[in-house]
Amino acid sequence: MDVPGIALITGAASGIGRACANAFANEGASGLALLDMNQEALDAVKAEIEASQKQKGNTNPVRVEVFSANIADESRVNEVVEEVAKTFGRLDYVVNAAGIAMKHPGGAAFCETSDWERILNINLTGTFFVLRAAAKIMLKQEPIKSSITGRPLQRGSIINFSSIQGVVGIPLSTAYTASKHAVIGLTKTASDDYASQGLRINAICPGYTETPLTTKSPEILKAMVERVSTMVPMERMGRPDEIADGVLYLAGGRSSFVTGSNLMVDGGYTAR
Ligand SMILES: NC(=O)c1ccc[n+]([C@@H]2O[C@H](COP(=O)([O-])OP(=O)(O)OC[C@H]3O[C@@H](n4cnc5c(N)ncnc54)[C@H](O)[C@@H]3O)[C@@H](O)[C@H]2O)c1
Q: Residue 23 in contact with residue 245, Cβ under 8 Å?
């Protein structure tokens, strides 16, 4: 795959973010900045990647640095993104995977303001904070070329995490569905701002994927298992590494003419 350079991955301590961190390491990134609120789990992912590189006998292993941060904390996000650029010298890819989910029993009429604000603050505003800080750095750096075909690649590539719930509604998910629709809007408008300057911004929309997000809450898991059996044409959940492959495509040179799009990786869910 075609991902030379430096990647910042949020939500890298678990699930899809962790799979993305491993995927970038395996597919040629030279530096990884892993951001999450969970320092202990971040350290474990760093150790996992370093052990895997060693096992493969990689003589030029990827450099991995971890950053403990809440993406909803504006000043901390600015500080970390600047530190990443200083540490690695540039920033080529941002994978905005940090996010949370919640069901509202009873639906929209019973969605608590505090729950609404928490979900929007992290999934939408946090994604915006990371995008904004990274775009400021990317816009100032020289573009790199695709390592596979040599075509002009990009000044930077940002992948925001939406969801199937960015394009369709699912019951009892008021705040999450609103946040993921908004991430697609953010992606489209920001991509248009910078398309002519070689900064590409796309969204990925995973379907039901087996991660702690979907399996740790009995309510979310129950709803998901029911829907997977009846609503997903492929009749199974996705795996985190299947989502990471979509992210690699959007990040690297194979998608050099793709910006402002949302890539559905959902086993056919939204095709029905
Ligand atoms: N798993 C699915 O079925 C699915 C489907 C569609 C979209 N998504 C999206 O994919 C992304 C990754 O989800 P996942 O399933 O891997 O979840 P996960 O819970 O396994 O991992 C999310 C990570 O984000 C981190 N995080 C949460 N809030 C944070 C914050 N404020 N600041 C920094 N880090 C924070 C968590 O600590 C965790 O490590 C999310 O944006 C989610 O909405 C997941």
A: yes
Active site residue 208: no
Per-domain boundaries in the chain: 6-271
pLDDT in tens, 66-120: 999 999 999 999 999 999 999 999 999 999 999 999 999 999 999 999 999 999 9
The interaxial angle of helices 127-138 and 174-194, nearest 10 deg, is 10
> Which of 103, 180, 249, 269 does the annotation list as catalytic?
180
| Phi, psi at 89, each rounded to 5° | 90, -25
**Structure confidence by residue, pLDDT tens digits, 203-247:** 999 999 999 988 888 877 887 888 899 999 999 999 999 999 999
Please give the Cα distance from 92 to 194 (Å, whole number): 15
Tell me the CATH class for 6-271: alpha beta
Q: Measured in angstroms, how far is the CA atom of residue 195 from the centroid of ligand 1?
A: 27
